[in-house]
Design brief:
The chain has a single domain, classed as TIM Barrel (Alpha-Beta Barrel). It is α/β, with parallel strands linked by helices. It has 11 helices and 8 strands. Helix 10 links the parallel strand 7 and strand 8. Bound molecules: 1,3-dihydroxyacetonephosphate (13P). The site of 1,3-dihydroxyacetonephosphate has 14 residues, from strand 8. The site of 1,3-dihydroxyacetonephosphate (13P) has 14 residues, from strand 8.
Length: about 270
């Protein structure tokens, strides 16, 4: 059975104080909501890289079930790549996840299906950091009826390099699959959320694409929805058959809204 994953992408927001307060605050809420029971879903926070160590330390002290992820990584393990951060560096500080190919990186920093796939392949070879592959279409692409084609191309570029096995239990001592996040670009930061039906349709398409290669891997891969997820729509979205949680931007920056979204995951996990 797939567990729900609630992931916060802080983007370029926050400072040292906020990192401490937000991680501690979310941990406290999550603990009190679980009423002493084991966490029935997963929580991940992805702060800017300069605060990763801080977030790992605070989570370690407050609630070790809260995982920490980076927002980007180099495809190289070391070398003369000014400004870059490598997978061994992330892993050394206790960062076990990394977002790859977020639409903002594709849009503003020239990342392509091929460059994202190379980073994914580096994760597969390294093994200690779970890649969260972000995919999704623009408004123009949706309106042109190209949603499935765009998403398929984004995933196929990765499959071409690592095969379907790259999505299987290759990560964190062979315990974790890769994660996919479907984030329609038109729903990011716009307040315009995909309807649960629109999102489910694309999630089902993604799962079928994986299943055509390996049913077991498809069934065990978490596919997150991202794009204006908030407390008021999280439950409905996460209740969809192929939606396994969310990648949350704006609403992950406040203790209250992020923990309300966690509460939706808990409710579904326990239902
Ligand atoms: P918002 O939740 O702010 O729309 O951002 C979504 C996102 O880009 C998460 O990666």
């Amino acid at each position: 059975m797939r567990r729900l994953l609630v992931a916060g992408n802080w983007k370029m927001h926050g400072d040292v104080t906020m990192t401490t307060e937000l991680v501690e605050g979310v941990a406290a809420k999550v603990v009190s909501m679980s009423e002493g029971k084991d966490l029935s879903y997963e929580v991940l926070v992805c702060p800017p890289s300069i605060y990763l160590s801080k977030a790992v330390d605070v989570a370690g002290r407050a609630l070790s079930e809260i995982k920490v992820g980076a927002q980007n990584v180099s495809e190289h393990s070391h070398g003369a790549y000014t400004g870059e951060i490598s997978l061994p560096m992330l892993s050394e500080i206790g960062c076990g996840y990394v977002l790859l190919g977020h639409s903002e990186r594709r849009q503003y920093y020239g990342e392509t299906n091929e460059s994202v796939a190379k980073k994914f392949a580096a994760c597969t070879a390294f093994g200690d950091v779970v890649p969260v592959l972000c995919v999704g279409e623009s408004l123009a692409e949706r309106e042109a009826g190209l949603t499935e084609q765009v998403v398929e191309n984004q995933i196929q570029a990765v499959l071409d390099l690592v095969g379907i096995e790259g999505f299987g239990k290759k990560y964190l001592q062979n315990t974790k699959n890769a994660v996919i996040a479907y984030e329609p670009v038109w729903a990011i930061g716009t307040g315009k959320t995909a309807t649960p039906e629109q999102a489910q349709e694309v999630h089902a398409f993604i799962r079928e694409m994986l299943a055509s290669l390996d049913r077991g891997i498809a069934d065990s891969t978490q596919i997150l929805y991202g794009g204006s997820v908030k407390p008021s729509n999280a439950l409905e979205l996460f209740a969809q058959k192929d939606i396994d949680g969310g990648l949350i931007g704006g609403a992950s920056l406040e203790i209250e809204s992020f923990s309300e979204i966690c509460k939706a995951a808990q409710k579904l996990a326990e239902s």
